[in-house]
Amino acid sequence: MMATQSGAIKHWWQRDTAPGYVLIAATIASFLLLNGPTGEAFYHLLEDQIAGLSVGVGEGAHAVNLHLIINDALMVIFFLYVGLELKRETVEGPFKNPREAALPMAGAVGGMAAPALIYLAIAGHNPDYVRGWAIPAATDIAFALGVMSLLGSRVPSGLRLFLLALAIIDDLGAILIIALFYSKHLVGWAIGGALATFLVMLMMNRAGVKTLLYYWALGLVLWGFMLISGVHATIAGVLTALTIPMRGADGSSPLTSAEHTLKPWVQFAIMPIFALANAGVSLNGAGFEALLHPVALGIAAGLVLGKPIGIVLCSWLACIALKQRAPGTWPQMLGMAMIAGIGFTMSLFIGTLAFGGGDIAASVRFGVLGGSLLSAILGLTVLWLACRAPAPRAHADYGPEEDVAEARGVIEDIDKR
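Below the sequence we write its predicted structure tokens.
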């Protein structure tokens, strides 16, 4: 037992690369299930309405199926987890300085603008294709972090945190784009209810309420309003995370304890289930012409070229303007920016909103999947070459002390010893 805790012996699920391997296995399984003999049954399992249930109001109502439960309910917990991690690093970590927080924000803005411009340069000549400009602008947090985790401790912790912050800002930007340009059935009273619930949770935080159960209960109410409102429901997870108290009167951290509890569930249950339900897009009936369609080429080029160009360029300019260092070397930043070109779910979702399930749907799938796969391969290659030696252990990993410290919510105090 002591050998295991000291790191001499590690079970496979304790390794830094384990979440990435599990995620890849789930992705491969999803493709096999959807494109093999089980394809039709697997599709109906995900898409068939459950007991005639629906959620929403009027024309904005959605049939309740397994796909909806995974994407709009289960993934809220993932967004809650990453929101907790980002808040911890923002309040007590390296991003507590607004000047440092400005770096991932600048990178995210560039990482959304450049892919959109490249897409429009390739496919924008046809007015029917312009609506797809936002498809390559999104980064899939789950897949991007999972791919980066394959390199384990070789990746500097600051670089991973930069990708995490960038991807969250990127996805929030994508949700805002959906609300402004693609949403057709926004429900005003539900948006108002979500805002009121969020304000109550903030006031609870200011009043010193530390019991997590109250926040989880109101977070569930917030998610319900979001689900009805027409705004993507996963944002409720991030908003809930923002209201969780960082410190209690005794110095313990409710936020860190919640993050520690959620970590294994997110890495080994929620992310693989998400991949199983979303990664395996059916390629049935998609011909060679769909692969060379301007929409497919625009999406792929936006992800593979636009993401690294926009992220690295804007991050570099922000470093000059703010007179501070990047979280890694510039070759490492380039590899990270390439991994950010993994679009997958959010890109596919925006593609469905833009073009529906018509003739262009196959081209959207080819562009998103091809661009994301190429971004993952190139990003891993560049990052592996740029991170030859293992990175120093960061404060988020303390070996035998980690479990006790995180469970008590005092992991930050170890740095002061």
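The mean pLDDT is 82.
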